[in-house]
Amino acid sequence: MKLIKLSAVAAALASLALSASAMTSIADDELSQVSGQDGVSIGGDLKINIGSFKYTDTDATGGSVSFNNIGIKGMFTMTVDILNAAAFAGTVGASMVGHGLTAAEAATNLGLLVTNGVYDNASDVVQFAFPNAGQDARLSPSITVGSITMGNSVGNKSFGSFAMNNIDLQGTKIWMWAH
What we know:
The protein is about 30% helix and about 35% strand. The chain has helices spanning about 1-20, 30-35, 85-100, 105-115, and strands at about 40-55, 65-85, 125-130, 140-150, 160-165, 175.
């Protein structure tokens, strides 16, 4: 009987240990071994309306301007990945070269991040990327402003409205790190 009780206690303790290990954090490279993935993807359908954005000049001759009924609508797909220092340097360097810098100039500019205390050249970096998913441009976000009015104009007259359509974010990358 003692053997059965001890076996039951041992089994209970073993199951607690396994449960506790299931609650530990998992590193990015370990996650890729488990699921075949090492990041997450986010998709969004934006339907944002901002009633008004008002700028007021506070000097003696100042007035105000209001941008009314601002709408941001459209869809996006984004991936989130953790990059180690080497992957971050390679990705940012390639982006700099894509903007016309030589590889040597990109290396110099990457060095400035370290020299100026912006990046420690060792920490992991979170990368938010809008992949080139080949999406129809009509799905891209658009921004509209219903009216632009001046606060001191008689009758609150409008300058009209404007729209920025098909803001294609595909290929955009954003990096975030602690400093």
